[in-house]
Amino acid sequence: MCFFKKRRSNDEGLVENKRAIEAMTGSLETLKVATDNAEILAKIDQIQEKIKYMNPTLDKNAHNFDKKINDAIGDLKIAVMKIKTDDDIAKILTSFKHLEMLVADRINNSRA
């Protein structure tokens, strides 16, 4: 019996990160279906384009940003489903600014 743990190759790690990025863009795609507000749809499109072209990486710090981005997208899904007033829309647009900052930090981090 072999008790050695198989090491994950770099290619497998990059493929896994690429799948995580694709999952984030897919989550944003489902968010588009949940709303009909033009401002929110425009923000989703902007962020989705940035996420779509993020480089897969093996960097642990970038993976932490990916988790934060995924969590922020999940929070936005919940908020969009509960839209009732214009104040709710304003709060969601503020949340998009937070998501944009996370995506920008992730992109800048992966270049370093």
Task: Give a written overview of the molecule.
This protein has helices spanning 10-34, 38-52, 60-81, 86-111. The protein has a domain at 36-111. Helix 1 runs antiparallel to helix 2, helix 1 (10-34) runs parallel beside helix 3 (60-81) and helix 3 runs antiparallel to helix 4 (86-111). The longest helix has 26 residues, at 86-111. It is built from four helices and no strands. The radius of gyration is 16 Å and the shape is elongated. It is 79% helix and 0% strand. The protein is mostly helical.
A few lines on this structure:
With 112 residues, this protein is mainly alpha-helical.
Topology (elements, then pairings):
Blueprint: H1 10-34, H2 38-52, H3 60-81, H4 86-111
Topology as a string of helices (H) and strands (E)? HHHH
Shape: elongated
Q: Rg from C-alpha positions? A: 16 Å
Mean pLDDT comes to 89
Q: List how many beta strands DSSP finds.
A: 0
The helix fraction, in percent, is over 70%
**Category by helix and strand content:** mainly alpha
- The termini sit apart by 42 Å
Major beta sheet summary: none
User: How many H/I helical runs?
Assistant: 4
Task: Extract low-pLDDT stretches.
Answer: none
Measured by DSSP, the beta-strand proportion falls in under 5%
